[in-house]
UniProtKB/TrEMBL annotation:
GO molecular function, one term: RNA binding
One of the GO BP terms on file: RNA modification
Stated name of the protein: Pentatricopeptide repeat-containing protein At3g18840
Phylogenetic lineage: Eukaryota, Viridiplantae, Streptophyta, Embryophyta, Tracheophyta
PPR repeat ranges per the UniProt record: 24-58, 235-269, 336-370, 470-500
Naturally occurring in which organism (per UniProt): Spinacia oleracea
Record keywords: Repeat
Transmembrane segments: none
Pfam families named among the record's database cross-references: E_motif, PPR, PPR_2
Amino acid sequence: MHLKSLKEVLLFHSQAIKSGFQSIIFTTNQLIHYYAKNGFLRHAHKLFDEMPERNVYSWNTIIAAHLKNHDLKKAEFLFNSSPHKDLVTYNSMLAGYVNNVDDKPELEHERSDLALRLFVEMQSSQIHGGSCSRIDEFTVTTMLNLVAKLCFVSLGTQLHSYMVKSGNVFSGFSCSSLIDMYSKCGCFREAIRVFNECRGCLDSVSKNAIVAACCRESELDLALDIFWHEVELNDTISWNTIISGFVQNGFHEKAFRLFICMMENGIRLNNHTFASILGACSSMRNLKLGKEIHAHVLKAGFIENSFISSGVVDVYCKCGNMDYAKFAYTTSSIGNAFSISSMIVAYSLMGNMEEARRLFDTLIEQNTVVWTALFSGYVKSQCCEEAFNLLSEFLAKEANVIPDALILMSMLGACAIQASLHPGKQIHSYILKSVTKIDGKLLSSMIDMYSKCGHITYAERIFLQVKERDSVLYNVMITGYAHHGKENEAIMLFKEMCERDNIRPNAATFVALLSTCRHAGLVELGENYFHAMESDYGIQPEADHYACMIDLYGRANQLEKASALMERVPFEPDAVLLGAFLNACRINRNLELAREAEEKLLRIEGESGSRYVQLANVYASEGNWVEVGRIRKKMKGKEVKKLAGCSWIHLENGVTIFTSGDTSHLKSDAIYSLLACLVAEINHLAVVERSKALA
DNA sequence: GAACATTCTC
């Protein structure tokens, strides 16, 4: 009897029941298999339970059925209670552990352990009364799969030699399994050797495995050579492999051309195809292509797949179009952790931290990517207190995880913004204790932190220990010297950068150099740098460079040069640049030019309170109260709030902020009386000093 | 005549 379709099975079964069906083990096993295969696991299990007698096939079939249904626990229970076990039973259970069939990544480690134990047990136990072999080709391929996952090369090599020695465990799968195992364990040459040995009897799976191996190794030319050789072997997976290989190696346009080629060749597209090509659209930030692929996906009915729907959301996030991203999320990807992660990253990048945090809290499990995104988002948006709170949260929640270098960099950035030396030092020592490989970026962040916290000598000490210096490292140190009024050191370091290390300065280097000149009032040198950056290094000055020069001229009482340079700015001046110019006008008491700048500035930054205050101060410094009144009037209509000047100090329990006139602190009375004592003390000391000087 | 293994995705 051959049973093929479900219809036949049901028909046969109902007839059997009607005619007073006497259970034959063989037939019932078949029924169990076909019920399970068609998704009727409960019916299959009922049949199994009702069997008066079972053989090893019955047990194997029901175990396989549960494994197919991703129920490892149930399979394990049946495995342990089965009175008949043969090699197939062991192989099935082994595969269940290796493939982590119930998809619980957190248990992967434990499962691998169980698989290894079972493998050892198989070799020692007398399966089926010792009448059959302990290991066959199924065992070997499953174990090679495990070896690939664990990067357990020594076991992989042992299996390989066992295969060669015993000769009877080779199968059609052995070649592809070996290639895959060696490649995933990082032994590319071994993978190639196996491939060359089985060239005569190459099947498409082995070919796909070696193409994937080449892509992993970034050997794309070789991958293409093999791909275009024996084209008749190429199937959908082959095309998917080569396309994803190009995407993963950053050749997105080439991947796209291959995708077009695949369609033109009439190859069937599947989930993997769309997932890879969506990845390419994301990396290219190509909204138009992304929308086209999205349309394809909807038409082909792949949007249900979680890889695909999150891929679509990711494309829109990477393109910065959050309206589309939200739409794609709510229509087809709700609850998908990858989609949520993409949106958290995107919102963090654009500084929308409320939305980023809201989504972050919806995740059941937070991964490194979203933690990192949130940290860097907070610091980029200058929300340092939130970043510190997040760090406490991270340490509490992920007690066993060492914060990733990117998180530590963000935290150093937060310390730098707040000028919080003490936490900065703590993070520094934490890095020394726990980070095994401290890279240039982390060192640059540490130098920047120490410099911005006022400890230029610490910064310098770290800088001098670094052997391999890059432009970022130099820029950070030059900027540090500039802010600490060490213009000679800054200038010398720039020379060292160009001459000793032969590193090309970039736009940021010149911001550092120009701000050195600005702080030191070095007009001529500043002009030299400003011209050199374009003529010698081909770097177009940006808003920051112009702002430095305007400020430099303003402080040196050379308003004519400042306004002449303002005229030559080749783009629409931004608020920073106009602010610098306004400041120059204030220093040089030119109300006429100030007023012109004022008009432009208010057009750009109409809502910002601090700008109005800056304007009012320009006129107040001249005693021009009519103008001050005019600005104040403008402020009133627009709900402009003046940003109060404030100081802050980082104590054990966090940051305490002091705003002028603030009495909200619980101990504000005590604070103010202590302050009064300090002021009295200072005044007293001043009087003593003065009388000493007079004496 | 029934049961177990390989290649490509965020």
